[in-house]
Amino acid sequence: MPVLAGLSVLRTTRNIDGARALIGHLTSPATQIETARSVGFFPVAETQLSADLEPSLQMSGVAIRKTQSAVDAIRALPPIGLGARGDEFDQIFLDTFQFIAQRGQNARAVLDREAETLQRLLVETGAPCWEPDPPSPGPCRVQ
Predict the structure, then answer these.
(1) Euclidean distance between the first and final Cα of the chain, in Å?
(2) The predicted structure's pLDDT at residue 15
(3) For residue 123, is pLDDT > 90?
(4) How many domains does the structure of the chain reveal?
(5) 91 falls within a domain
(6) Does residue 122 share a domain with residue 107?
(7) What are phi and psi for residue 48, nearest 5 degrees?
(8) Would 6 be classed as within a structural domain?
(9) 31 and 86, same domain (yes or no)
């Protein structure tokens, strides 16, 4: 699942230096590597992955770096506007992958079926389109 990550300090923060120190700690290479190791969330700051990470994390790290640096990469934002129903989008995404990649079901049939489920969710939540799709005047339309 793609994730946007950002840290900031509010102007009204009572302890600005402490907040900046916390951000420094969270984005330090050691903390970034430990986060990858413990929860599989990859570094958001330029960090060399530790050689002692599990092979699956090492392979994922290589794939993520290649994806991020590809000249033909398409920027895609996480879904927006779903509110408390974001988990339903995640499930549609996972189901689609599992039906096609793991169970070998016909890709076109799965995409058509899951598109109906996704469209229902978008209409019910009124969620607009997000990048890379152009903005929509109402609920995003699945194509």
Answers:
(1) 21
(2) 95
(3) yes
(4) 2
(5) yes
(6) yes
(7) -85, 125
(8) no
(9) no
Q: pLDDT tens digits, residue range 62-102?
A: 888 888 888 998 878 888 899 999 999 999 999 999 999 99
Please give the Cα distance from 123 to 131 (Å, whole number): 18
Phi, psi for 129 (deg, rounded to 5): -70, 150
- Interatomic CA distance for residues 96 and 98, integer angstroms: 6
Residues 39, 82 within the same domain: no
Instruction: For 25-53, give one letter per residue: b (16+ CB within 10 A) or e.
Output: eebeeeebbebbeeeeebbeeebebbeee
Mean pLDDT of the chain: 88
How high is the pLDDT of residue 2?
54
Range of the structural domain that residue 124 is part of: 75-143
Do 81 and 122 belong together in one domain? yes
Identify whether 20 is part of a domain.
Answer: yes
pLDDT at 4 > cutoff 70: no
Q: What is the 3 state secondary structure string of 131-142?
A: CCCCCCCCCCCC
Taking 90 as the threshold, does the pLDDT of residue 25 lie above it?
Answer: yes
